[in-house]
Design a protein that fits this description.
- The complex is a heterodimer of chains A (about 160) and B (about 750).
- With about 160 residues, chain A is mostly beta strands.
- Chain A is built from 2 helices and 12 strands.
- In chain A, strand 5 and strand 6 (about 55-60) form a beta hairpin.
- Chain A is elongated, with a radius of gyration of 19 Å.
- With about 750 residues, chain B is an alpha+beta fold.
- Chain B is built from 22 helices and 19 strands.
- The chains are: A mainly beta (about 160), B alpha+beta (about 750).
- The interface between A and B is medium-sized, with 20 and 18 residues.
Chain lengths: ~160, ~750
C-alpha cells in the first residue's frame, strides 16, 4: 500500500492503462479535460473504460515529468482540434459555404453549414464546427491576417 | 336572512376598522340574490347585529353552541350563522369584505368559546396587525402587509403619456438643450436663401431684364451668401441630427434596461398572467419605436414647428396682407389633425396588441415544437398565425383608410393655398402693390412652408404610434411588485434555517389556496409534503421561497418575518430543485455556476461530483465547456436534473426546496438523482414535495395537505399507525402498485 507516483502505460495494442498510486492497474482508460476550451491543461481526469472517473488532476504543472509527458501525449491523441491559421478563400459569403483554410495540421477545406456552427469563446477565440463534425479553433480572431479576418467576419 | 331587494338607501356610514376592543363591524356588499346591496354586520360584546339596507335590524345573542361558517367561491363569500345544526342566517359578500369577515368570524369564535374578547385583543395587538393579523416585525411600526404601496391609478390614456418619457430624457438634458439650440440655428440658416431671392430678383434679375448692365459684384455677393447659408445649414443640420440621434438611442437603451430590470423584479404572479410574446414585443419592438420617434420624428416635428413659426414671422414682416392669405389653410389642417388623431391612436393601439399576439404564437409554438409535431398540429399553428396576421392586416387597413385620405387632403389644402397665393400675388403685382421679388420670396417660402405643414401633419401618425407604445411600456413600469421589498431591510445574520409559518392563508385571485397553515420546521429537518394535486403543496413551497407573499399570517426565518428581509439576500439562502429543470443557453459550467458566477472551476467540478454529474459531463465532447441549448436537448431528463442539483449545491443554501425533483424520470434515473439529493439535503432544512415514498421515507416529518389545510403531521410510522389520510394514500398506492414498492402517486 505504499504510495507511488501513478503511471500511464501503453501496451502493444495501443491501449492505455493507468497504474494508480496503490498500484492497481486500470486497463483501457482515457484522459479527459474538463474544460478543453476555456482552460485546457487544467482539471484533467482519468476515466475508466466504463466512463467512471478514477483520478483527477487540478493542474498538470507540478506533475512528475514522465507522467506529464505521457498525459500530454494521451490528450493530444484524443483531442483533434485543428487551429485555423489562415482563411484563403470562401465559396460564398452566406451559408452553406466552403472555406479553404490553412491549419496547424495542414491545409484543408471546411464546410460551414450554419452561422450557429461558429461559437465564440471569450472575447477573441472562435470555435467552428464543420459539416463533418470536426471542430476548428481560431485562437485569436484579431490576430489573424487582414484578409482572413475580413472573410470570417462575414459569417459572425 | 333576507335583505330588501329594492334599490336600497345607503347604510349609515360603515366603519371599516374595528370600533375598538370588543367591537367588530363589517360592511357586507351583496344580498342573498348576489345583487350589490350594502348592509352592516356588527359584533358588539356578545351580540351579533345585522342592519339591513332599509335600516331594519336583527340581533342574536352569542351562545357557546353557535358558530360562524365562512367559505368563498368565485369571488363571492358566504357567511353563515349556525346554532348547533341549524342555520340561523346567511350573508353574502365580495372579496372586498373578505378579510374583515374573517376577522369577525374569529372574534365571534372567541366570544362563543367564552374567552374575553378584550383580553385577546390586547394580547394580539402587541405583535400583530389589527387589520390582517399579520405579525409586525420588531423595529417596524406599520404592518408590512397592509402598508404595502397600492398600485398607481391608471394613467390617462392619451398623447400626454409621451410627456412621461421625460423621466428617461432627464439625464440627457444638456445634450437635448444643445440639440434644440442647433435646431433653431439650422432652421434659421435654411430660411436665409428664400429671403435672398427677394433682392436677387428685384436688384439683379429685373434690372438686367430691363436692359441695365449686370452688376456682377452684387450677383456674386448674393450667390456667395446663398452658398454660405446652405453650407451653414448643412453643418448645423449634421451636428444637430447626430447629437439628437445619439441621445435618442441612449434614451431607448435606458428604457429597455429599466423596463427589463423592472420586469424581472416583478413577482411570479405577474408572469403567471402574462404571455411571453407580448412581453418580448413590449421590450423589443415598442422601445425601438419610441426611440425612432424621439430621434427622428419628434426632431422633425420640432424643426417643422420652428420653421413654420419663423416663416410666419418673416412673411408677416415682409407683407402682412400676403402673409394672412398664405397662412389661411393652416387652421383647416389643424382641425383635420384633431379629427384624425383619435381614430389613429385607437387603431395603432390595436395594431400593437395584435402584434403582441403574433409574437405570442411564435413564443408558444417554438418552445412547444415537440408537442406541435407529436400531435401533427403544424397546420393548425400555421393557421392560427395566419389568422392573427390577417387580423393585423385588417387593423392596418382600417388605419390606412383614414391615413390614406388624410395625407392627400393635407397636400390638396396646401396646393390650394399655393394657388391662392399665386392668384393674390399676381393681382397685387398687377396693381404694383408688391414687387416681383417679394412674390418670388413668398412663393419660395410657401413651398417650404407647406412641405413642412405636410410633414408635420404626418407626425400625428407617429405620435399616436409612440403614445400607444409608451402606454404599453408604462403598463409594465407602473406595475408594482406584489412581493414588495422591505422598507428598511435589516441585515441577515448567519442563517440557521428555522422556518415558522403562522396562520398562513394564501389567496390566488378569488380562490383560497392555503388556509390557516401553522408549521414549525427546525434547522436541518427534512419535511415531506404530501397531498393530492391542487392541495397547495407547491404553493406552500412558493410562499417559503417568497415567490408570492402570504395573504394573511406570516412566514419567518429564524424568528424574522421574511418580508423584512431583503429578497435577494433571502433567496441566496434558498436552493430550489424543480420538477422540470431549466438550463439556460450556455455551457454546462455556466449553468452550474448560475447562482454563484464567481465560483472557481474546482468548485464547479466539486459540486458536479457531489451531484453525481461529473462522470457524464466528462463524456460530453467538450466536458464542462459543452453548450446546452435553450431546452437542453442534448441531455436526458436525469442529466439535466443532476446539473440543476449541482447548481443548488454550489450555492450551499441553508434551506432547500425539492419540488417533485424526481417525478419526471424513470426509476433507474431516479436512483441516480436520489443519490445526488441525499448529498444535497445533508444538514439543510429541506422541504420536499415528492411522488415517491423513497424520498419521503427519510423525512423527519411528513405533512399531509388537503384542500389547502394541514390534515396530518407525523413520521411515516406514526401516520401509518394513525390510519388517516396518509394511510389511505399508502393503501391506494399499494393497490395500484400491486403491494410492491410503496409509491405515492400524487399529481403535480
Amino acid at each position: 500500500m505504499n504510495d507511488r507516483v501513478p503511471r500511464l502505460a501503453r501496451d502493444a495494442a495501443g491501449v492505455l492503462s493507468w497504474i494508480d498510486a496503490r498500484g492497481t492497474v486500470h486497463r483501457g482508460v482515457h484522459l479527459v479535460q474538463a474544460f478543453p476550451l476555456t482552460a485546457p491543461g487544467e482539471q484533467v481526469s482519468v476515466v475508466s473504460a466504463e466512463g467512471a472517473e478514477i483520478d483527477a488532476f487540478e493542474r498538470l504543472d507540478g506533475l512528475d515529468p514522465a507522467l506529464r509527458a505521457a498525459i500530454d501525449a494521451a490528450l493530444a491523441e484524443r483531442e483533434f482540434m485543428p487551429v485555423i491559421e489562415r482563411v484563403l478563400s470562401v465559396s460564398r459569403h452566406w451559408v452553406p459555404s466552403t472555406l479553404d483554410i490553412e491549419t496547424d495540421r495542414g491545409p484543408t477545406q471546411l464546410v460551414l453549414e450554419s452561422e450557429e456552427a461558429i461559437r465564440r469563446i471569450g472575447p477573441d477565440k472562435l470555435l467552428i464546427r464543420d459539416s463533418r463534425g470536426i471542430c476548428f479553433v481560431v485562437k485569436s480572431h484579431s490576430g489573424l491576417d487582414r484578409r482572413s479576418r475580413k472573410l470570417l467576419e462575414r459569417f459572425l | 336572512m333576507d335583505t330588501d331587494a329594492a334599490a336600497a338607501p345607503k347604510v349609515p356610514a360603515a366603519v371599516p376598522h374595528p370600533g375598538g376592543a370588543g367591537s367588530h363591524r363589517v360592511e357586507l356588499d351583496l344580498d342573498l340574490e348576489l345583487r350589490f346591496v350594502r348592509s352592516l354586520l356588527e359584533l358588539a360584546g356578545d351580540c351579533l347585529r345585522w342592519i339591513g339596507p332599509g335600516g331594519e335590524q336583527r340581533e342574536w345573542r352569542v351562545t357557546p353552541g353557535m358558530r360562524l361558517g365562512h367559505e368563498a367561491h368565485a369571488g363571492a363569500g358566504r357567511l353563515q350563522l349556525f346554532d348547533g345544526g341549524t342555520c340561523l342566517a346567511t350573508w353574502r359578500h365580495t372579496q372586498d369584505a373578505f378579510v374583515a369577515v374573517q376577522r369577525l368570524r374569529d372574534a365571534f369564535a372567541r366570544v362563543a368559546s367564552g374567552r374575553s374578547q378584550a383580553a385577546l385583543h390586547d394580547e394580539e395587538a402587541s405583535a400583530r396587525c389589527p387589520i390582517c393579523r399579520t405579525s409586525i416585525p420588531a423595529g417596524q411600526v406599520d404592518c408590512p402587509q397592509c402598508d404595502a404601496p397600492e398600485g398607481t391609478e391608471a394613467a390617462a390614456p392619451s398623447t400626454w403619456i409621451l410627456l412621461r418619457l421625460w423621466r428617461f430624457a432627464r439625464p440627457y438634458k444638456r445634450s437635448l438643450l444643445l440639440g434644440f439650440v442647433l435646431t433653431l440655428a439650422s432652421t434659421f440658416a435654411t430660411l436665409v436663401p428664400p429671403y435672398l431671392t427677394m433682392p436677387l430678383m428685384d436688384r439683379v434679375l429685373i434690372p438686367t431684364q430691363r436692359g441695365e448692365a449686370l452688376d456682377v459684384g452684387l450677383a456674386t455677393g448674393y450667390l456667395g451668401a446663398l452658398l454660405v447659408a446652405a453650407l451653414v445649414a448643412w453643418g448645423l443640420g449634421y451636428w444637430r441630427t447626430y447629437i439628437l440621434a445619439l441621445v435618442a438611442e441612449r434614451i431607448g437603451a435606458d428604457m429597455r434596461n429599466i423596463t427589463f430590470s423592472h420586469l424581472l423584479n416583478l413577482s411570479l404572479e405577474y408572469f403567471g398572467g402574462k404571455r411571453t410574446g407580448d412581453l418580448i414585443a413590449r421590450i423589443g419592438a415598442e422601445t425601438d419605436r419610441i426611440c425612432v420617434f424621439l430621434s427622428l420624428q419628434l426632431l422633425d416635428f420640432a424643426t417643422d414647428l420652428v420653421m413654420i413659426t419663423m416663416t410666419a414671422v418673416i412673411l408677416a414682416s415682409i407683407d402682412p396682407l400676403l402673409a394672412v392669405v398664405t397662412l389661411a389653410p393652416l387652421p383647416f389642417i389643424v382641425w383635420l389633425v384633431y379629427l384624425v388623431r383619435d381614430r389613429l391612436r385607437f387603431g395603432f393601439e390595436q395594431i400593437n396588441r395584435t402584434w403582441g399576439e403574433v409574437t405570442n404564437v411564435l413564443a408558444d409554438t417554438i418552445p412547444g415544437i415537440r408537442v406541435v409535431k407529436a400531435f401533427a398540429q403544424e397546420s393548425r399553428e400555421v393557421n392560427r398565425f395566419a389568422e392573427l396576421n390577417q387580423k393585423n392586416l385588417r387593423m392596418n387597413d382600417r388605419v390606412n383608410r383614414v391615413w390614406a385620405l388624410f395625407a392627400p387632403t393635407v397636400t390638396l389644402l396646401t396646393e390650394i393655398g399655393l394657388l391662392v397665393v399665386w392668384a393674390f400675388g399676381i393681382w397685387q403685382v398687377a396693381h404694383d402693390r408688391v414687387s416681383i421679388g417679394v412674390l418670388t420670396a413668398f412663393l419660395a417660402y410657401i413651398g417650404r412652408f407647406f412641405t413642412r405643414v405636410d410633414s408635420m401633419s404626418r407626425i400625428v401618425s407617429f405620435t399616436q404610434q409612440a403614445a400607444a407604445g409608451a402606454k404599453r411600456i408604462f403598463d409594465v413600469l407602473d406595475c408594482v411588485p406584489t412581493v414588495p421589498p422591505p422598507h428598511q431591510p435589516l441585515p441577515l445574520a448567519p442563517v440557521e434555517g428555522r422556518i415558522a409559518l403562522r396562520d398562513v392563508t394564501f389567496q390566488y385571485g378569488n380562490h383560497t389556496v392555503l388556509r390557516d397553515i401553522n408549521l414549525e420546521i427546525a434547522p436541518g429537518e427534512l419535511v415531506g409534503l404530501i397531498g393530492h394535486s391542487g392541495s397547495g403543496k407547491s404553493t406552500l413551497a412558493n410562499l417559503i421561497c417568497r415567490f408570492y407573499d402570504v395573504s394573511q399570517g406570516s412566514i419567518s426565518l429564524d424568528g424574522r418575518d421574511v418580508r423584512t428581509i431583503d429578497i435577494a439576500q433571502y433567496r441566496k439562502h434558498i436552493g430550489v430543485v424543480l420538477q422540470e429543470p431549466f438550463l439556460f443557453f450556455g455551457t454546462i459550467a455556466e449553468n452550474i455556476a448560475y447562482g454563484k458566477p464567481e465560483a472557481t472551476r474546482a468548485d464547479i467540478i466539486e459540486a458536479a461530483r457531489a451531484a453525481n454529474a461529473h462522470d457524464f459531463i466528462l463524456r460530453l465532447p467538450f466536458g464542462y465547456d459543452s453548450v446546452v441549448g435553450e431546452r437542453g436537448q442534448a441531455l436526458s431528463g436525469g442529466e439535466r436534473q443532476r446539473i440543476s442539483i449541482a447548481r443548488a449545491l454550489l450555492t450551499n443554501p441553508r434551506i432547500l426546496i425539492l419540488d417533485e425533483a424526481t417525478s419526471a424520470v424513470d426509476s433507474t434515473t431516479e436512483k441516480e438523482i436520489q443519490k445526488a439529493l441525499d448529498t444535497l439535503v445533508q444538514g439543510r432544512t429541506t422541504i420536499a414535495i415528492a411522488h415517491r415514498l423513497s424520498t419521503l421515507r427519510k423525512a423527519d416529518r411528513l405533512v399531509v395537505l388537503d384542500k389547502g389545510e394541514i390534515v396530518e403531521v407525523g413520521t411515516h410510522d406514526d401516520l401509518l399507525a394513525r390510519r388517516g389520510a396518509y394511510y389511505r394514500f399508502c393503501v391506494n398506492q399499494s393497490q395500484q402498485e400491486g403491494g410492491g414498492a410503496m409509491l405515492l402517486e400524487v399529481g403535480a
